Structure formats: structure tokens, C-alpha cells
Write the C-alpha cells for this entry.
Amino acid sequence: MKSPQINLDTVKEVLKKLSFLKNNLALLVPIIIALVAALLFIPTKLLSARLKKTITQQSVKSAEEIERLIKDVNEAGQAEAMEEYVNAYAQDANQIENLMRQTTMRELFSYEIFPDTNETSPLLFDPIKRKYMAGVDAMVERIGGGAPPTDSDIDAALEQSPRRSLYGRSRGGMGSGYGGGQRNFRLLPEMDRRIVDKLCEDRAKAIRIYANPADLDGYSFWSDWTFEDWDTAVRQSWTWQMGYWALGDVIDTIQQMNSNSSSALDAPVKRIMNVSFTLSSQSTRMIGGRRGRMTRRPTDKQTPTYVINLKTAIAAPPCTGRYCNEIVDVMHFNVRVIVAADQVMPFIQELCSAKTHKFRGWYGDQPEQTFKHNQIAVLESNVIPVDIEDLDHNTYRYGSDTVVDLDLICEYIFQKAGYEAVKPQVIKNDIAGTTEEI
């Protein structure tokens, strides 16, 4: 192949046209740069379009695919994590429900009557009577309970005094310690009063709280109990079993409150006036806007009662608005104690705190477990100053603390799911209102 011939005239003509650069060398470099840029622009544009297409088809598409995969992975991870949260919440709900049931899974006096049995012997109720009374005795002993000196104790102390007054010889005058038909030892002559004060002080030092089994409701009931008929006995046994659980919580509260005390003189809780499932004649209430004493008296036949309506409530109406329903059963009870004035709120807080109990199954044949319960709410409270000169406190010594009479109406909650399986049918009927006697 022959090389193309170059037209000399054409070259000369070009050189001739470019000869002006000899006189304008400063323009040579920009012109060369412009020419090179022009030569590079076209292939660069072509390469850019091809590169863009390649990036779009490969890199961007791959990135979108990776992003989609990451999103799928994240969604799968989130779903798995959510499943863990849901399972955790379900476990929490189940655990809470289980803990609620456990509050009402408590030991019974008898595993032969509850649940309903085909037996009809009245002798089955004797163990309940004995266990209730023995249990209350043990409660009083556990908190170091005791009584003040009796009249006989005081008479004996005065008789034995070498410097006794005419106390033992006269029963009619004010100096004898009697006034208006009720004995008042603070009206004795000074020497006799010192003897009585010393006796009462020594008794207070020997106990940790003034408490008597008869002050705890049900003790007197069972001490005089006789069998009437099966349904009545079942009602009495079941409701007093519920009441016994509430009594236990009150005693546990007092034991905790007085745990650091040495005697009734320095104990935060000085005296149990009463724990009752009906309002006693000594309970103080707001009547017509003024504090007064209730005249309603419990009879020997009264027992703890489920609160199914306003008529069966001690607190009327209860501030919680709770009555027996498909979830819980409700009872009311009254606590009246003498406490140090600065221990009112600590006592209420302790009364409403969680406590523990043992459970060995509804037939008493399972391994022992320890459960927690917290079933008390305070509905009403009254705090009354105590006049230590009053005859109600005649032989009681409370130490140097300023004391008050704390009167509470409380609510006790039973979770139906915890004990419905062993609740007697007659009690279920009572709560449902399908029987006349409640």
C-alpha cells in the first residue's frame, strides 16, 4: 500500500496561515490546550455514557438488591425481636396472673370439708374449732401479748402492802376507788395509787403489747360454738377461715412494727382494742359530720361476710367501689389499736404491705411452697386522741409516748381463680344471691 501524498501547497498554505503565531507565541499554548480538549471531549463523552450505563446496570442494581436484602434481614430480625418481646410480655402477664392466684392459695384448717364432701358428720367441724382457737392463742403469744393487772391482782397487792389504806375495808366512798359503779384506781389515796401504778408499770414491762385472744374476732364465737346444721356449719367454717387469714396479716403487721421494742412501754403498737368483722359498739365513726361511737353491736351469731352489695359492707359505700364480682371476692374488717402518735402512717403502710404464707396444696399433700400476698386496702381511718385518765385505760401504761386510738376499716381481696375450686357451693350461692341467707 502506498503512503498518501501530502499536498505541499496545502501544507505551505497552512504554515502560511499559522505564521502569525511567530509574532503571537502567547496564544500558542491556549490554542494547543483547546485542540487537545476538543480531541478528548468526544471519546470522554462516549466513555462517560458507557460507564454510566454500566454503573446503572451493575453497581446501582447490585446496591438496590443489597439494600432490599438488608431490609428483608432487618424486617426478619425485627419480627424475631418483636416475637421475643411479645413472648416476654405474655410471660409477664402469665406470671402476674399466677402471682395473683397465689395470694389466695392458703392453708386450710381442714382438708376434709373443703371442697364439698359427701360426709355429714358434725365431728368434722371440731378440728376447725380447736385449730381456730389454738391459732389465735399462738398469734397473741407470738407478739408477746398480755393483759394488765386484774382487780384481783390489785386487791392482792393492796392487801399485802404494810402501809395499806382503808381500801380493803370500804367499798362505798370515792376513796375506795369506785365511782359511779365503775372502779377507778386513780381515785385511790396516794399510797394505794402508787402501789397500783407500780403493779401496772411492772406488768407493762413484762409484755410487749396489750392483747387478749378475746379481742380477736372469732375466738369467742368458736369457744361457744355448737353444731346447728350442715350448711350453717360450712358457712361458718369457711368465712371464719377467710377471717383467720386477715387476722394473721394484722398480727404479722404488729409483730413487724414492734420487732425492735422490749415492752409495751416502748412499743410503737401498744394495745389491740379489737379486730372485728362487724362494727363493735366501741368503734368510732363520723356520724352526721361529728365523730361519735356506733351503737351497732355484733351478736354471737355474726360471722365474716362477703361484700356483695351496700347492705353487706362495713364501709358504706366503700371508697374503692369494690364488691364481689367475677374476678375477686371482698370482705371488710375493722382494726382498732392504740399506737404512738407518730406511728399511725407506718402502721397503715405495714398493714398494706406484702406478706408471705405457706401452701401445701388444697389437700395438704404437696411439697410446701412459700407465696406472697398483699390483699389489704384501708377504706376509712379515724385517729382519736387518748385520754389516759379515761376508765378504758385505767390499768394500762403506754410509756412516755403520746398515743392515739387508731380505728381502721379495711378491705380484704380474694382472687377467685386462686380458691374457686375448693369454695363450698353454699358460699358460691350466697355470693351469687341465689340463697336467702347470707
In short: Residues 166-181, 281-300 have pLDDT under 50 and may be disordered. Residues 10-100 form one domain. DSSP finds ten helices and twelve strands in the chain. The chain has two domains: 10-100, 104-144+207-432.
